[in-house]
Write a structure and sequence with these properties.
InterPro entries: RGS, RGS10/12/14-like, RGS10_RGS, RGS_sf, RGS_subdom1/3, RGS_subdomain_2. Keywords: GTPase activation. GO terms for molecular function: G-protein alpha-subunit binding; GTPase activator activity. One of its GO terms (biological process) is regulation of G protein-coupled receptor signaling pathway. By secondary structure, this protein is mostly helical. 66% of the residues lie in helices and 0% in strands.
Length: 168
Amino acid sequence: SEHKINDSESHPSSSHQTLKGTSKWATSLENLLEDPEGVKRFREFLKKEFSEENVLFWLACEEFKKTQGKKQMQEKAKEIYTTFLSSKASSQVNVEGQSRLNETILETPHPLMFQKLQDQIFNLMKYDSYSRFLKSDIFLNHKKSEEQEENSPEAQTAAKRASRIYNT
């Protein structure tokens, strides 16, 4: 057990724990969507691109999976359908096969009923909007302001506070 030297390399994930803000967002779309501030900035960006409905749909599906009780699920499913999937939807998302999701499925909802569509939208965002977001002013300005905060004298004490928050 003398060979502890390579230990840090065998756990590359541990370095990810310390990433926050833009450096975390830049690692993956998953990480971006886990961070409320990241979601906020991404939505801001998508609004400019007129595709905010994609992330809203994705978030609604995530929320839907946690919904308990048949009645609540029916209501939520119907809401998702009318908001994002029906032909008259106000924020229609562009998914293949959405026409095949007919309204009868809404009567017997199950947690993963939107999973295929959610995955499609995730990939659409991942290979399209997400890479543009990382080059956008919204992202770069946020990154710049983070760097300025890190270098400010207050940041030292703030960093101590933040590390407490992040370690919970």
